[in-house]
Amino acid sequence: MSSHHIVRENQEPALLIMDVDAISEDSLGQLLEWSPIVVTIDANVDFLLSRGIKIDVVFTSELDFVIHQDGTLVLPIQQHVLLDALEYLKQKKQFALHILWNEFPADALLEHSQAFTFAVYSRHFKYVIRSSFHKWMPQESVMKVIAIISDYATENLKSVSDGKYRAIADGFVNIHSRSGNVLIIGEAL
Asked: pTM here?
């Protein structure tokens, strides 16, 4: 028996690659499995091309930047790469985005979290932006919470440092904002 999958345009989250080392190459391959729109910066082009990765858009501050790949759009950085990428994706009606970025701008992501759905891969963590998180996790699993202005509660999690937690026991962990504001919630990869 065979399985057939139909992937429609903009069905899969786009992929913004700011730091190629934010996740392993195997994990990168999984994110690329369904051929998302790939957006990056000029500093990553050689790495991505050397691995045969099709790049859709490159943002650069170099006026004479050239990429040797057909169909790649080269755009100047106008404001900030994240804001430029979000504007480009909005024009493409693409509102889901995976981001590989070790030092991501939390404030900017929170500001745009109503219009976009983000998953950020950063330094061995996957972050999502939500007002609550509920997931079964093995004991000792590590979680992080970045709460800009929000008071939040946790269940089945023990605080090990500021914003970092470990699951107390195998089972569901819960993190929820008491005010309804969104949190940036990370789980170790």
From this structure: 0.90
